[in-house]
C-alpha cells in the first residue's frame, strides 16, 4: 500500500483556540500603546511557536508508510481484524500515531500506535464490524498524528489495496442423513463392515448408520475392521432441503466448523464447475462460501 509522501495538515481545535489567543494578543498590542512592545513581542513568539508546531506535526509523519494490509475470513456479524504493517524509513522515531479508516467509512475504526522506532517495521490491528457475507475491498486507510505539540492534526492517505472475506454464519443442524448416505454411496466395498456399535461423541458422523436410526431410533456406528478414518464429503446438494441460498450456505459453514472442532478431514463440493476443496484449504473454503453465487 505504498503512497506518495504527501502529508495534509490543519489546525486542531486546540490550535484554533491558540490562534485566536495570538490574534487577541496582537489586538491588545494595538489597543494598549503603553504595552504594545511587550504584547507584540509575545504575539510574534506565539506565532513562531504555532509555525514550529505545524512543521513538527508534518515531520512526525514523514518516512512512515503502510506497506501491507491483510485479514483472515470471519463469519458475518463478527469484527474483521485488519493487520496493518507500518514501516518507518526515517532515522528518527515517530510518536503518537494512529491508524484509522478514512472519513467515508462508517463506522470508523482506529488503533493507537505510541511509537515506531527508527527503521522499524511493526504490525497493528484495526477491527471493522461486518454485517453480511461477501468479498469487500479493504477501505482507504489514514495515518494520523496530533503530536508532538497537539495544536495540529496531520494525516497521510493510503489507497485501498486488497480484499477481505466474510463467510456465512455457521448455523444449522449437525451433519444430516444426506451427507452420510452420499458418503456411503461412494463406498467401493473395500472396507469390511463387521457390525455396529453404539454411537459415542467424537465418532465420525460419516459412519453413522442412518437406516438403523430410521428403523429403531438408535444411534449406531458402522464398525470398520481396518479402523481407517474417512473423509466427510460436504456437498452443496446435501442442503437442498433448506429454503434459500443463505440458509444452505450457513448449513455448509456449520458443517465445516463441526469438522474443524472434531478434527475430521473433509471435502467441500459446491457443485459442477467448481473445484473441490479440502480441510487443509480452510481459508479457500471460507472464501468460496463468502463469494458463492448459485448457477442459473
Summary of the model, kept short:
The protein has 296 residues and is α+β, with helices and mostly antiparallel strands. The protein has helices at residues 13-31, 36-59, 177-185, 210-216, 245-261, 282-290, and strands spanning 8-11, 64-70, 74-75, 80-88, 94-101, 110-116, 121-128, 134-137, 141-145, 152-158, 163-167, 193-198, 220-224, 232-235, 266-269, 277-278. It has six helices and 16 strands.
Q: Topology, please?
A:
Blueprint: E1 8-11, H1 13-31, H2 36-59, E2 64-70, E3 74-75, E4 80-88, E5 94-101, E6 110-116, E7 121-128, E8 134-137, E9 141-145, E10 152-158, E11 163-167, H3 177-185, E12 193-198, H4 210-216, E13 220-224, E14 232-235, H5 245-261, E15 266-269, E16 277-278, H6 282-290
Parallel strand pairs: 3-11, 14-15
Antiparallel strand pairs: 1-10, 2-4, 4-7, 5-6, 5-9, 8-11, 9-10, 12-13, 15-16
Helix pairs in contact: 1-2
